[in-house]
Amino acid sequence: MPDPDLSPEQVRKMAHLVGITIDDPDLPEVANRFASLMQELDRLRDLDLEGIEPVTIFPDADAG
User: Fold this and answer.
1) pLDDT per position as a tens digit, 28-49
2) Is 31 inside any structural domain?
3) Which residues lie below 8 Å from residue 28, measured CB to CB, with a gap of 6+?
4) Pseudo-torsion of CA 27, 30, 33, 37, nearest 10°?
5) 11 near 31, Cβ under 8 Å?
6) In which domain, by residue range, is 15 found?
7) What does the alpha-carbon distance between residue 14 and residue 20 come to, in Å, rounded to a whole number?
8) How far apart are CA 32 and CA 14, in angstroms?
9) Total structural domains in the chain?
């Protein structure tokens, strides 16, 4: 369930900081989706990642 404390106005402010404009009618839906995404990402904290080596997804352009 999305974080009820995340308001559309907070989402508007975050979007402004990164240069994204969100129309007023879209704010509640964007806030809901953002809160759901953050909740899913928070689940990653429960994973035991000890001993797992990081994987390079975007290799350096200089490599190779």
Assistant:
1) 999 999 989 989 999 988 999 8
2) yes
3) 8
4) -120
5) yes
6) 8-45
7) 9
8) 14
9) 1
| Any domain includes 63 | no
Domain presence at residue 33: yes
The two structure tokens encoding residue 18: 């990164």
For the chain, report the end-to-end CA distance as a whole number of angstroms: 45
Reported as a pLDDT band with limits 50, 70 and 90, residue 56 is confident
Question: Is 34 within 8 Å of 4 (Cβ atoms)?
Answer: no
Residue 58: predicted pLDDT: 82
Q: Are the C-beta atoms of residues 21 and 15 closer than 8 Å to each other?
A: yes
Residue 64 within a domain: no
Place of tokens 């290799």: 59
